[in-house]
Amino acid sequence: MHLAYPAVLSALLFCTGLYGVLARRNAILVLMSVELMLNAVNLNLVAFDVWLSRAARDTLHSGQALTLFTIAIAAAEIGIGLAIVLAVYRGRGTADIDKLRDSAEPHGPDEATVTADEKAEATA
Amino acid sequence: MSLAAATAAAARATTAAAESHGFLSPTGVEIAFLLVGLVTFGAAIVTVTTKQLVHAALWLVVTLGGLAVEYLLLTAEFIAWVQVLIYVGSVVVLLLFGLMLTKAPIGRSPDADSGNRWAALTVAVAAAAALVWVVVDAFRTTWVDLDGAAAGSTEVTGASLFQSWVLPFEALSVLLLAALVGAIVLSRKAVADKATPALPTPGPPSGTLPPSRTAVDTTASGEQPPAKEGTR
């Protein structure tokens, strides 16, 4: 098999995941897109490991070992990520990334004064 | 030194092998890989573009299953079954649980995509074009020999994992433990805050509780009234 086939498929899957991360609004859909990107990297690692194990007589199998590590880290990441999303949902009532703008810098003077007024009301 | 020599020999061998295999004369494995790859890529596209959130998770199952088939075609059997077990078996179930617990709408939700989707599409298409061009240009003649014994059977993978990669493997188990504890802490926090005011705080606790637990409880109940006054 030509190495170009798995490499091209992995590049296309990675860019699909990239589009999902940038364009999706729900936090869980963003996590799904991150999984897509991680899987694209895994496919690349496996393909190059199979190539090197035959062509360069590589017996270390670093690509497959790294793939297993990536899968385990992705499982840990999805657990922690979902716990964070659920905690945010419990506190704010939404998992919408566009609405979670507490750490964003204010755009104009109006928004800045509004937040200042809210702070003044909260402290009063 | 020896690695460079091996790489050069490998490059010569793969070029010699690729000369006997034309670029546009696909073998059976390549045709199967191409077809499964098309299904996988299409399912990935639907995953990131569909308006129904639960359908996105189900199309993700198709994508991950297709990738498992690709691993099998690349003779990496152990990775393929691990992929089926962990991704299709647990990660998608976790994602579905997350969708249900955040009360995701079952039907079509028109605001699934944010307003910057055209910028995202531009970035993704540009990245795909650049990556595909570079990858095809670099590995056009590289040939992967799939005949003979499997490169990723359970025996081979287990031997390399427990001979060369034992220390990262053990470190990874510590990471998984830390992730487990972290997920429990993140999930329990609101429950503990909600449960603390309901506890009957006056009266000495029974001796069965450890002292650290009682100390935490008394400090939490001691902080509770000023916080309430502050919010009102």
From TrEMBL, chain A:
Its EC number is 7.1.1.-. Keywords: Cell membrane, Membrane, NAD, Quinone, Translocase, Transmembrane, Transmembrane helix, Transport. The chain crosses the membrane at residues 66-89. Gene3D superfamilies: 1.10.287.3510. NDH-1 shuttles electrons from NADH, via FMN and iron-sulfur (Fe-S) centers, to quinones in the respiratory chain. The immediate electron acceptor for the enzyme in this species is believed to be a menaquinone. Couples the redox reaction to proton translocation (for every two electrons transferred, four hydrogen ions are translocated across the cytoplasmic membrane), and thus conserves the redox energy in a proton gradient. PANTHER family: NADH-UBIQUINONE OXIDOREDUCTASE CHAIN 4L (PTHR11434:SF16), NADH-UBIQUINONE OXIDOREDUCTASE SUBUNIT ND4L (PTHR11434). This is NADH-quinone oxidoreductase subunit K.
UniProtKB/TrEMBL annotation, chain B:
Its EC number is 7.1.1.-. Its main location: membrane. InterPro entries: NADH_UbQ/plastoQ_OxRdtase_su6 (IPR001457), Nuo/plastoQ_OxRdtase_6_NuoJ (IPR042106). It comes from the Bacteria. It is found in: Cell membrane. It is an enzyme of class 7 (translocase). Residues 199-208 have a biased composition (Pro residues). One of its GO terms (cellular component) is plasma membrane. PANTHER family: NADH-UBIQUINONE OXIDOREDUCTASE CHAIN 6. NDH-1 shuttles electrons from NADH, via FMN and iron-sulfur (Fe-S) centers, to quinones in the respiratory chain. Couples the redox reaction to proton translocation (for every two electrons transferred, four hydrogen ions are translocated across the cytoplasmic membrane), and thus conserves the redox energy in a proton gradient. This is NADH-quinone oxidoreductase subunit J. The lineage of its organism: Bacteria, Bacillati, Actinomycetota, Actinomycetes, Kitasatosporales.
